[in-house]
Amino acid sequence: MTVTEHTPQLTAPASRGGCPFDPPPAYERAREESPVTRVQLWDDSPCWLITRHEDVRTVLGDRRFSADARRPGFPFLSAARKRLPRGRPSFIGMDDPGHARMRRMLTAEFMVKKVESMRPDVRRITDDLLDRMTATGRTADLVGEFALPLPSLVICRLLGVPYEDHEFFQSRSAVLLNVRSSPEALAAAQGEVSQYLTDLAKLKRSSPDDGIISRLMERGELSVEEVAGMGFLLLVAGHETTANMTALSVLALLRRPDQLALLRDDPSLIKGAVEELLRYLSIVHNGLARTATEDVTVGGRTIRAGEGVLCLLNTANRDEEVFPSGDGLDVGRDARRHIAFGFGVHQCLGQPLARLELQVALEAVLRRLPGLRLAVPFEDIRFRTDMIVYGVHGLPVAW
Asked: How far apart are CA 280 and CA 313, in angstroms?
């Protein structure tokens, strides 16, 4: 790195504050006082922290910032992640033109019109899960019995992955997303999921179906390993993010009964409320990592080639310049300018599906469980402060 200035004692990841829905207070202060600022990582190496909406969009939209973790200076959030073996990255960790080439192969799968055609199926899956959950009593863990199975079932069907193997990939996903996992555990989990998907991709050659993995194999443009890598990304991201957004959204609404009442009284607000919840909760709490490939000026600060950058989506989505009273939840707000799915060429490919699943899930929960409430004190809820994707480990509810 070429940083020569004094690096302040602001660390990443930072400690959380009192409200578990809010970004760490140190990050919020940084946004107000110095929106492009230096932080120290776990190994005392410096990194730039980008906290303001405009600046985050600037960095994520600028191709002079690389998403390739193999570049020197890339900011890793733990020693284990830095030591993780890095072969050919999935396209989320590529730069163009390789990134664009591979992403184009999936674009049609997640077009809004195609995803919208899935709404009846997603509704059926949602209702089936709620039927089972409510048939066994008056209490349940909303994460284990609803929020996690819903996107898992959907992404398995979309990819052509047998759902009966869901416990296998969910257990490995938990290891991969845990910031405290050891290098050995991370490498083992990554290797096991990669091998599973490699074997599955090979199987699709002789037993094709209508899933994405099978269609990618039929195209013949990618190696088996590349198809497995794309399947890996879609499988892990496709269930973990939506599952945690669903549970966290329900919890946030239970904590704001006035907002919950608005949605129950007027279900037409659901689509807009999903955008507001995405903004307010922004479950990628540790930032999106990039490395500058050239000297770039952002927010009046010069970021040198080879220096790492963390773009904080959660502080950007609370920026008062863009979202007045942004620290509050307002389901009537026009939150369409949020960047919970990222920005630029790497913004989330599956966002139409995530939106659909969240809309259907929240509408069904509010409609079918009018007496929904927490079954434990709020203080007993375990938040995923140890995970890359934020949320709750469990959500005991009653109705």
From this structure: 10
In a domain, residue 11? The reply is no
Claim: this prediction has a pTM higher than 0.85 = yes
Q: Report the distance separating Cα 198 and Cα 205, nearest Å.
A: 11
Q: CATH number, domain at 387?
A: 1.10.630.10
Judge whether 61 lies within some domain: no
- Give me the count of residues in the chain: 399
Residue 3, both tokens: 């940083």
Asked if omega into 97 is within 30° of 0 (cis), the reply is yes
Residue 181 resides in a domain: yes
Q: How far apart are CA 361 and CA 355, in angstroms?
A: 10
CA–CA separation, 44 and 46 (whole Å): 6
Q: What residues make up the domain containing 239?
A: 93-282+324-398
Helix (H) or strand (E) holding 127: helix 119-135
The CA distance from 350 to 309, in Å, is 24
Q: Which residue, 164, 133, 170, 166, is CA-closest to 250? A: 133
pLDDT value for 276: 98
pLDDT tens profile 194-229:
999 999 999 999 899 999 999 999 999 999 999 999
Number of H helices, E strands in the chain: 16, 10
Residue 302 phi, psi dihedral angles, 5° rounding: -90, 120
